[in-house]
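Here is one chain, start to finish.
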Amino acid sequence: MPFAKVSSLGEYVGRLPYDCECVRELTTFAEKHNIKSAVFNLIGAAKSAKLAYYDQKAKKYREFEVNEETEVVSCTGNISWKDGRPFVHAHASLAKEDGTTVGGHLRGMRVFAVEVYLRRFKDPIERIPDEVTGLNLMNFEKNPEHDIKDVSDVKRNRQA
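Its structure:
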């Protein structure tokens, strides 16, 4: 399993503007601050959302709308670099008025009140197409600054 050791360049806390589109707002923030890799968490309330489920056989997303007020129980994601600009990848769990939840890949969310915690990393992480999954996945091998390891190597070193 490829992974990279990352160094933090700082942490941000904030609040998304009322009635903004969440993914667009996070992308704009990343562009403005030249963020090429980060992780984030969101909590709060949404006016509506567009979520998706990835159909692994068809290799495409199936979108669905949540056209009601919800609580953002959890939303976690990352920011990486794709096609020369920031790419926001997030998954959200939203609670409806009756307490049921719906979740999936976050395509968009109209904000009522959402708080943000974002941790920025030093090195860029780029996404590239993966033929096996049909997804754009993080690529650690293109950047020589990443400290690439393989889980099997780590296990062997622990046993030695």
